[in-house]
Amino acid sequence: MKKTPLALFLALGLLHTPLSAFAATAPLDLVAPISDYKIYVTEQLDELASHTQQFTDAVKKGDLATAKKLYAPTRVYYESIEPIAELFSDLDASIDSRVDDHEQGVKAADFTGFHRIEYSLFSENSTHGLDQLADGLNKDVKDLQNRVAGLTFPPEKVVGGAAALMEEVAATKVTGEEDRYSHTDLYDFQGNVDGAKKIVDLLRPYLEQNDSAFAAKVDKNFTTVNTILAKYNTADGGFETYDKVKENDRKALIGPVNTLAEDLSTLRGKLGLN
């Protein structure tokens, strides 16, 4: 195989280890997909920042109805890029931590971000006292944008992110614990699924060349999961609240999601990144 010029790796922002180490773990085929994935993440972050501004504006204006309406459609952009967002653990904690992460619960000073605001909006039905939290969320999202802009995307993290997104749905989201106050969990599911599928789509030419049967199986599993989620679509393009999804129907999600996660967990091995 022809050697890739050092300048190309540098230009694409893919050189985070010595060239010899990178070449040993990432074939040339991954250069373009990972570059394209960074573009996708950047676009999702642009949408996240724009929607977060609208969301927090409504919160600060005391417009409870609008704030509630914007909560889930805003968060979905974060959910789609979690493998990258989680590389910055401090920001992930301040933007997306759950009440369980804080010993003092909803009153904890470090319980901030989407879920803290969610608690006030949906559990207390109030926007009172949320100005500082709203400003903090905006600041953190913009900080995330800036950090990602200068980030070298680790190939193994990108490829492994497809499985991580689906594993999170199966392990912690099907229970409804993520958006326990708003019950908007199905938006999060869709964001995770879309983010995982984007990674697979970018890797598709390589996967089909090396294991077309595997690629077809993964596509079929994605279709199954998306078909299940589509059952809960609403006329306005959103989703029904998760508290309306019966326990048996929740369990019906787990099998297909687990199957997809298990298949995607082999991606790194197939691409020589283990």
List the helices and strands and how they pair.
Blueprint: H1 6-12, H2 19-25, H3 31-61, H4 64-80, H5 82-85, H6 89-96, H7 114-123, H8 131-149, H9 155-173, H10 185-210, H11 212-230, H12 247-264, H13 267-270
Helix pairs in contact: 3-4, 3-8, 3-10, 4-7, 4-10, 9-10, 9-12, 10-11, 11-12
Secondary structural class? mainly alpha
Whole-number mean pLDDT: 89
What is the CATH class designation of the largest domain?
Mainly Alpha
Number of strands: 0
What count of helical segments does DSSP give?
13
Structural domain count:
2
Can you give a write-up of this model?
Helix content is 69%, strand content 0%. The protein folds into 2 domains: 29-153, A middle domain of Talin 1 (Up-down Bundle), CATH 1.20.1420; 154-273, Up-down Bundle (A middle domain of Talin 1), CATH 1.20.1420. The two termini are 21 Å apart. It has 13 helices and no strands. With 274 residues, it is an all-alpha fold. 38% of the residues are buried. Mean pLDDT is 89; it is low at 1-26.
Summarize the structure.
The protein has 274 residues and is mainly α. The chain is built from 13 helices and no strands. The chain folds into 2 domains: 125 residues, A middle domain of Talin 1 (Up-down Bundle), CATH 1.20.1420; 120 residues, A middle domain of Talin 1.
List keywords for this structure.
mainly alpha; A middle domain of Talin 1; 13 helices; 0% strand; Iron_uptake_EfeM/EfeO; Imelysin-like; signal
